[in-house]
Amino acid sequence: MPNYLAGAALCLSLTVTGFATAQTDNVSRTASGKPDFSGLWQALGNNQWNIEPSAAKAGPDWQWGALGAIPATLGIVKDGELPYTPSGLAQKQVNQADWLALDPVVKCYMPGVPRANYMPFPFQIVQSDETVVMAYEFASAMRIVYMDQPDFDGPVPAWMGHSRGHWEGDTLVIRVTDFMPYTWFDHAGNHHSDQLEVIERYTPAGPNLIMYEAEIRDPVTYTRPWRMAFPLYRRMEENAQLLEFKCVEFAEELVYGYLNKDAPDDRVPPRGMPFTIQEQ
Amino acid sequence: MTRHNITEKNQGKSQGFTLVALALGILVCGAGWAQQSDWQVPRTPEGQPDLQGVWANNSSTPLERPEFFGDRATLTAEEFQELRRQAEEIRASGGDALFGDGFLNAVISGEVQSYDPATGNYDSGWMVDRNLENRTSLIIDPPNGRIPPMTEEGRARAQQRMSARLSPTDSYLGRPLQERCITWGMPYIMAGYNSYYQIVQGKDSVAIIQEMIHDVRIVPLGEKPPLDERVKLWHGDSRGWWEGDTLVVQTKNFSDKSLFRGAGENRLFTERYTRVAEDVLQYEFTVEDPSTWERPWTAVINYTASEDPIFEYACHEGNYALMGILSGARAAERAGQIPTE
Question: Residue B241's domain spans which residues?
């Protein structure tokens, strides 16, 4: 797998310019001596709205007032603006102009990777030597990371991709491929194709902090690989635990409401996914 | 049994592939799993019994004992031989699919009750090979192998729910939770239909992955305060501990919308996971709810090891069936017809 090896090498070189090396003396470890990432984690910073820097602005619905406005973000994309191809940029602009209708997570579709990691919901890691599970509160999305099967190719395209992991020192490196083309990176319409490949790096920085980096490769949408980086914080509440946000029940009126027998006049078929049935 | 519609079909080849790829050879076994005397449960580096892997519930045994068998918990050797013969016949017939209890019931009665009589969508191509056991019911207690009688309160609640039921085609709210891709419930015990689970053990928690609608239950081990009882969950709130080599999981705080055989938010659900052979995980559950049944009841399912991985079951993402059902009903109304279920 030459592609894979090249990815590992590139990531290794990125670490030097990335976060500082882990404080290995202060990290919870498994019986096998690897950092133990088990627990409940969450990103801060509102980057689910926009992974690039942006000022605060009004939200789509005035009735929500201040609560519905969109906060400012510092951005998590490194090395300047996203290197879109011309067609990739054109699609981003279409997405952005109509984001509320087109963004898949508004309809409770699984958010994909890396987006699931910086949604405003926690996710829980359960880690064994062979397998790492990431269970996300949003949409009950989940990933199985195969640590013991580096050559296991993705059997089918998946919304959350296909994840294989390995260790580089104390860093958990996960290569994610075999994505569906439909997921986005944020509410601002940043997107990818089915050629997306994500190389994630989880590096412990103390017992309650993970420094996260992701390298994004998608030669259809971008002119070069780019990367994002942000911290993941352990949820420290004494009673912290993963709850349910099975959001299908909150998106059904949006997705299917127009098909109800007594649908109000303002219910129309949603735009974007799913490819709706047009009522006569 | 709830009839599921063509939701999965819309995920295209991948879903069909899942079922075919996960097909196991027919396993034949008795009531107890013959163990080699020197077999010991494998252990994790932490020293816990290692229950990890992908496990299949493809048991042919129905939840409740068919009345035909009376008090007999196991089949006779002749009956078991006949079960095997008929299973092979059903498999070779290429007819309708049989999931869950439908399999043994078809063998007993000689009549195949189609899982999906309306569309004929589910044929034998959807079926995995079933794990043939000589047991007559998954329920081991009460001894008659059947769910205990409902209390008066339970019957009244069931009646109320029946009368409050919405039309099945007026709104998405009238469709079953499975078709809406919300959940197949907790526990999901129907055999032979994406009935795969994966267990992953961390140091202080266990993840129980259910392939159906990609649900993961995280079970914390050891001391952890219970979740506030005002937080109700579709799959409840679980706490786990080890009793010898058995993982015990107790779950409560169920949402009242999350029904199990007529029980709702009051149920207390206790599971016991024991690896009894290299390739068999014994799954025992007890459900208690004095507001629903006259007594608790307990069932045992033998999960068998699967070589194949869990697939992503993107249910809601491909749920064109729900649109089709409602759209079809509206079209029927426009044509002056009454929509059918």
Answer: 139-340
